[in-house]
Amino acid sequence: MSETSTVEQARNPNIVIRPVLPADIEDLHPVFETWIRDRDTGEILTQEIAKLEEEILSSIDDDNEREYFVAENDAGKAIGIMGMQSPPYDDIVSFASTRNPMETINAYVAKSERLSGAGITLAKHIENLATQQGYTELLVNSGPRYKNTGWPFWTKLYGQPSGVAVGLYGPGGDAMVWRKSLGQAEEIISSFDFATTRKRRHGYYGTRRCWAALYKIATENNDFPLQPTEEDSASLKGNIGSALSWLQEKGLGQHAVYRFVLEEIQEERSITE
Predict the structure, then answer these.
(1) Domain boundaries, the chain
(2) 53: phi then psi, degrees, rounded to nearest 5
(3) Which of 31, 79, 96, 150 is the most buried (most CB within 10 A)?
């Protein structure tokens, strides 16, 4: 879980995106009652709503692996919510094609605000945050109760579904699954793996070509903001083995080391193929 506290301006200047607060549940409860209903009878699913609200409140206290954001209008009212979690649900993670996916969850916007841009702005906020945190792709599923609402929304945003989670929501409850690659993180990981493989085989880290490829990818895609401090850099400079040890100690994503390595190369070496 990240400690995100920033407020992001939405495409609609009257809407801001911010982390959920306990007081937002009062605004969001009618939104949940609008959308969380039995797909056959239309009955409001009170127990499912209560469980979701409990999970949202738990996320605020960092008691689960979820993080929620709301779209707030100019009156200070929460009109929509969307969450993210990692790892994805067990039944969804199999649709991932990279090694570090996250999942967008529980996307709801007030019916009266569906044309406000709140939904797409929430989705883009989560995409950007996931990229910054080093995730390599985003997954999202939507069950048949949202066939006429959620399915067109996600298809417009991410294209045709990548697959179908058969029976995810019980008999007849097949869910569509969408995925979106986040930047070129996986390409960087592959290049880095190539470098460490050469270490094992030949006793040194990487080649000029490998580092040149890393440099090219990172300079074209500024998706890796975490960096070591000056003190860390002083102890790591020129030693990728120490960088890996530092990475494990800090518990940071691999992108921190990539950025450090690339900046050191840019400053001290002339990179050619």
Answers:
(1) 8-181, 185-268
(2) -65, -35
(3) 79
